What does this fold into?
Amino acid sequence: MLQFLRRKIQFLGRKIRHSKGVSPEHAKEKVSPFSGNLSRDLEEVKSVLGFSKDLIIKEFFIEARQKIKAAILMIDGMIDKKDVDEQILRPLILNPCLSKIDERADSQDLAAYIEYNVLTAADIKKTPSMEAAVDGILSGDTVLLLDGFPKAFIISTRGWETRSISEPETDPVVRGPREGFVETLRINTAMLRRKIKDSNLTIEQMRLGRKTKTDICIAYLKNVANPELVNEVKNRLQRVDVDSVLESGYLEEYIEDSPFSIFPTVGISEKPDVIAAKVLEGRVAVMTDGTPIVLTVPLLFVEAFQSADDYYSRPYYSSLVRLLRFGAFLVSILLPAIYISVTTFHQELIPTALLYTMAAAREGTPFPAFIEAMMMGAVFEILREASVRMPRPTGQAVSIVGALVIGQSAVTAGLIGAPMVIIVAVTAIASFVTPNLLDVGTLLRAYFSVLSAAMGLFGIMIGLIGLLIHLVTIRSFGVPFLSPIAPMIFRDLKDVILRVPMWLMAARPRSIEMRDSVRQEFLLMPGEDDEKEPDKKRDA
Amino acid sequence: MVTVLEKGRISSLHLTATIAVFIIGTSVLLPPARDAKQSEWLAVSAGMIMGLLYNAMYVMLAVQFPGRIPIEYNDIIFGRYLGKAISALQLWFAFHLGSLVLRNISEFFVSIMPETPIIAFAVLMMLVCASAARNGIETIADCGPLIMLICFLTLFFDISLGMKDIKVSNYLPLLNMSLNKFFRESYGAASFPFAETVIFLMIFPFVKKREELMTSTLKGVFLGGAFLILEIIRNIGVLGQIEDIYTYPTFEAVRLIDVANIVTRLEIAISGVFILTAFMKLSALFYVTVLGSAHLLKMRSYLPLVLPVGSMMILLSLINFDNVVENIEFAARIYPVYSFPFELLIPMISLLVAKFRRLSINKLSSE
Amino acid sequence: MILLLVLAFIGMALFEAPGLVRRRWWRELAVFAATLGLAFMLSLMRVIGVDLPNPNKIITLLVHMFLNVLPT
It folds into this structure.
């Protein structure tokens, strides 16, 4: 069915492309060079930018033997004014050495002299292309043009107002670093570098989005990550030829393996320590400018049950909590279904004493258990959505209304049986234990409820088998999603069902390795690998 | 080449687990060798030893033709026309066995939920098995270790909780039957479930490490057999002499577990094991059927066969038996004789002919 | 019931056939059509109450014949 849909979509895509006669590659704009005539070039740039009012142009003279007209262009608000003043304007206008330059020196020599001896900025590029210069201006760089010199200097002076580093709202930890990524790419890459001060940490950059021209960084450990994986990530990212990339979610949907699966196959986090740990395990991180959410691939199903906290606190409790998370996930997807099937089909399975109480509580309720479960589930989802979207102070009201009206009154009024309220409440709380699977959990809950209403426990079992087959089939960048559970890799289970002490986790998880690249051993850690060294700790 | 039809490869661990779960499937539901009464476990143990020999023979045959399924080398061994006929017979065996498994598991669920028609269970069960088979051998085998773990965990809890109900006197007197009868019962246990692994001849070619084929297969048979024997020992200890009058003795024995009125009604867990193992067995049988048929019919993919063969399997499972007594009767009396040519005769002749005429993969490729 | 059966088989045909036609796998399409047609005929006969021959009965007969031949 999904393959059918996929084929349909590809077919439609081809049809549209044919009818419009557009080649699959995004047509390259033609390169227009600078003329060398300053006033003409300035007019050109202005018209390219649509005479926008936030473009600042400062014209001035350079005091060489003969006066040379020059201009700098920048966008207001995207530059650091102090940098422009100290590193560009001051040296150029006030430098006394410029006048000593030889009379016969042509504009080439002058430009070289300015680049190497005058400008004090660190990051200077030269370009003959107007498009590159305009791109630079739009990214917050300052462009310097000299009269009679057909190239532009692009001087990095980016500096704009950013949010300061703060604790992320999602996945908070009890113990561990409080910092979270921010919206600026450079700050984020620096935060990652500060965690991993290894020369092998490679950060590659590319630009995506025809209109937004968003910077994307791919970070990985050169000697750990599978080169095939890195290439695959790059290829998939280069395929993304879209108008805009405003958030990493845009990318996620273009690069994931199973676009029709309800399970995400790309991991997300906004905590530098989490990303560092994943990169250290051989994963590849994809950072997007303008969002604190960083993507990691490949994602394994079990990662939803791991939290940064597990590794920072001692192993016994962490292991217990991890088992609890698996249990909570199962409860959150299965409990309503089990309740429905037990009350509808298998009353004999309820212990006798409980059966009496439940029968009494359900006495006189008008709806069958399935309808009750669906109604309460929908109400809960509405409440959750409302409390997320609502301004903080109003949230209180929602929870009071939810608890009182839905919980208390519905039961008193005899609309809903009291057991169902308990079931929905337990389910809801259990579903918050694995926040990454929240949306998946909701869908699965409905799926299992329908199956159990139709076929009882047999339906639930069939549903579980179907789910298992689906999970076994999907891949995340070539890695089986359910690894290391299926295919089973016993060595990796030490960090899945339990969290063994750090000094026992001397080897990296083997699941992330490509399954059929057995000959290549990419994941060998430098130095200590298989030996257990109790005094050396791994970072992740 | 069979690789055209299936590109997946499975590891030795997955083969072991798949074989173990395959053997557990439905045999834990309807235990073999019931006529041996309290010596059933001895008969099944003897059957397991026979089963190990059978499986050693299958692996030797598979090693003779690495990377090929029986459909391919039957033509070499028996000649073009007889080979085709024998291939068809083998496929029929897998297909028919699949329908029996489907019948057994759906019948079991009808006994729990009597109002639901049997076809509903059969169709849903077939649906998941067909989707597993569509995704190839890797998907089926990947589920193996997980299902095996679940099985053994359930077994551990069932047995440790049911321990207090076991009466040693139930096992006595041991072996109060003629040796002839004992042998007959053991042979029955060997033919169902241990030698049903003959269908793995079509799965062996996809195992990654050929040198581990023998150990991993025998390990799988042993694990599955150990599970079955432990369950049977528990059943006899709990239910005693009357064990064989229950249709589903394992289910009855687990139903009796009652620890201080708190831990009761564990039959849910055991029916979960029934359905998981039956899923495994059915999807393996179904997969083998469609893969073999596709090869016999020289198709480029086995996927088009999945739905038609699946619906025919459902149909056959519906007309197989009129009631569960007939089912048990068939399993005990007819099946051991019926399976004899498929499980012993054909593989043995193939192996002997291949050995003596020194037929191997080279002959195959030269043709 | 017959309607349900027809719908199910039409669904199966629609699920598999378009892909085969697109790839021009005529041989596979022929096999698919033949087996699906056979399955449909047999199911239809079952639904309208025709007694289908039970292979188990045949097997039982064969086994008994075989056992009678053998001196036991």
